[in-house]
Design goal:
Blueprint: E1 2-3, H1 11-17, E2 23-30, E3 33-35, E4 41-43, E5 48-53, H2 69-79, E6 94-95, E7 102-103, E8 128-133, E9 148-154, H3 159-178, E10 193-194, E11 200-203, E12 208-211, E13 214-215, E14 223-228, E15 235-239, E16 244-248, E17 263-271, E18 279-286, E19 289-295, E20 302-304, E21 322-328, E22 333-337, E23 340-344, E24 356-360, E25 372-381, H4 387-394, E26 415-419, E27 428-431, E28 440-445, E29 449-451, E30 458-463, E31 466-471, E32 477-486, E33 491-501
Parallel strand pairs: 11-33
Antiparallel strand pairs: 1-2, 2-9, 3-4, 5-8, 6-7, 10-13, 12-31, 14-32, 15-25, 15-29, 16-24, 16-28, 17-21, 17-25, 18-19, 18-24, 19-20, 21-22, 22-23, 25-26, 27-28, 30-31, 32-33
Length: 533
């Protein structure tokens, strides 16, 4: 059993010491001795592995009750490989959310490759208690049993490489124990090195095959796996002419979530490659007292209000999604792009006072500066976020809600407004303030259009060293995958982008059976055909 960080880096380790976060665990080296049905002595290993968290998160997987007998019965369930609640004699199994099967060795997937049931699917990152069980076995008065358990820790470059190193050390610990603690028996495992993959482009209704390869210094058997990195989300498209969103509070007045003092603003945006000049992702305020985040007219750089019109960071007009974060503290202002610090001002910018409420896709007041492109996931905080919190929210390019804390992000209770912009239909968007029942809305102005995303319909399979990517008929778009090579103890990974290009299908001839009384409508797709009536 082992624990590892839920995010790539840990705030305390990374910010204070510049270190990756370690992984740690326990390994059963030798269990109790029992007699089998024939009287032969055998050694038990783990007979079940369960876990629980620090609080109830919808599945009853939390600390057993204390100072009451029901807690003892809950512990008994855990030790037999069942959910703690309801308590014994009721015994409900842990169920693999991917296969639907009952399991007594839970979370037996591989976090290095993302394959199988791994932690984070049922519950978000948080405290974990490991329950490693062995038995049953009997002991009479005066009997002894020798049980060997190892405690292992490892640290590498990030959360997953630390875990890979931990698995490697586990192999060494087993080898060391099985050799009778002979130092000469220890061999250091070397992780396989996967060969980088080129991106693949195919036409609609075609199938892509990719040959995978990797090297392993130890000559271990290598297995490949593939992880689908594709998330779906709806978003709003703005035409750069008159499309925008005006946010309002429950009373119908324009909402001003950015107040005096420290604040942070975050948004995902995709600027059109056809755009140019001034345009704003978000804005609030009035002349002389305002905030906005968008592009400048000269130099084409990101600007953040009148106090910081030239951040020196290029505004990306590349038809790609980017994560923008502006964080203002009492002494400095920070601009982050795609999870990384891009610029610092050296002083605090002013905060907006009065004027227009928060707008999405347009400048404050009577100015236009309409955004040309797509916007999603707009959020503001009543405080400055740390660098590790911003990196956690970026989440490697996958959307992470700001409304729930993670190990590296702890400002959910400071969210002053959050607009996912994922409704997918209608002319109103819904906003949320942390721990508040007030209803916030955004009125879509102009003709801003929704893009409703469907899951990337591509079947990715691996047979031996051959990866096959088979899109559904008539599907086109983009998809991203992580391919990993593992020797059973450590792994390395590489990414792959798949682009499926749309193809205009030619109209197909068909037989048309008709009677004299029928009316035949000739359309553009069939006007060249001949029909007998």
């Amino acid at each position: 059993g082992y624990v590892y960080n839920g995010n790539t880096f840990d705030e305390t380790f990374f910010d204070n010491y510049g270190m990756a976060v370690p992984a740690a665990g326990y390994v059963f080296l030798e269990g109790p001795k029992v007699a089998d049905a024939d009287g032969n002595i055998d050694t038990l290993g783990m007979t079940s592995f369960t876990y629980f968290g620090s609080e109830v998160l919808g599945d009853g997987i939390s600390d057993p009750d204390v100072k009451v007998y029901s807690g003892t019965l809950q512990w008994f369930n855990l030790m037999e490989g069942f959910l703690p609640r309801p308590e014994y004699p009721t015994q409900l199994p842990f169920v693999d959310p991917l296969t639907g099967t009952a399991e007594k060795f839970v979370l037996a997937g591989d976090p290095l490759t993302g394959a199988g049931w791994i932690d984070g699917i049922v519950m978000p990152p948080g405290d974990r208690r490991l329950v490693m069980n062995t038995g049953p076995f009997q002991m009479a008065l005066g009997d002894t049993q020798d049980i060997f358990v190892g405690t292992i820790g490892a640290i590498a470059e990030d959360n997953l490489t630390s875990l890979g190193k931990l698995i490697e050390f586990t192999k060494l610990a087993r080898t060391f124990h099985n050799s009778g603690y002979d130092n000469k028996a220890i061999e250091l495992n070397v992780a396989p090195i996967i060969t980088a993959l080129n991106d693949v482009t195919i036409n609609e209704d075609e199938t892509a095959t990719v040959t995978l390869s990797a090297t392993d210094e130890d000559g271990d058997v290598i297995t490949f796996s593939v992880k689908d990195n594709n998330a779906t989300r709806n978003y709003l498209n703005f035409d750069g002419v008159d499309d925008w969103v005006q946010t309002k509070n429950e009373g119908g007045d324009e909402d001003h979530p950015i107040n005096d003092g420290d604040f942070t603003v975050s948004a995902w945006a995709k600027a059109s490659s056809l755009s140019s000049g001034l345009m704003e992702i978000v804005s609030q305020g009035q002349a002389g007292s305002n905030f906005y985040l968008g592009s400048s007219n000269t130099g084409d750089v990101i600007r953040a209000g009148d106090d910081w019109e030239d951040t020196g960071v290029t505004f990306p007009r590349d038809d790609q999604w980017h994560h923008y974060v502006l964080s203002r503290s009492s002494s400095n202002t920070y601009l982050y792009l795609d999870g990384s610090l891009a610029a610092t001002k050296g002083s605090a910018i002013e905060y907006p006072d009065g004027g227009s409420g928060l707008r999405i896709g347009r400048q404050y007041g009577t100015a236009g500066e309409y955004f040309y492109g797509s916007i999603s996931e707009v959020a503001t905080w009543g405080g400055a976020l740390s660098a590790s919190e911003v990196a956690s929210l970026y989440n490697g390019g996958s959307i992470l809600s700001p409304m729930r804390d993670t190990i590296s992000y702890s400002s959910a209770d400071d969210v002053s407004i959050y607009y996912p912009l994922n409704e997918g239909t209608g002319s109103t968007v819904q906003g949320t303030e942390y721990n508040s029942s007030e209803v916030f809305t955004g009125e879509i102005k102009g003709g801003a259009r929704w893009t409703v995303m469907v899951a990337q319909r591509v079947t990715a399979t691996i047979s031996g060293s051959m990866l096959t990517l088979a899109p559904d008929p008539n599907w086109y778009g983009e998809a991203n995958y992580t391919v990993s090579a593992s020797d059973g103890y450590a792994a390395s990974s590489t990414s792959l982008n798949l682009t499926v290009t749309a193809v205009n299908d030619a109209p197909a001839a068909f037989d048309w059976v008709s009677t004299a009384s029928d009316t035949i409508k000739i359309s553009q797709s069939n006007l060249t055909e001949e029909y007998e009536l």
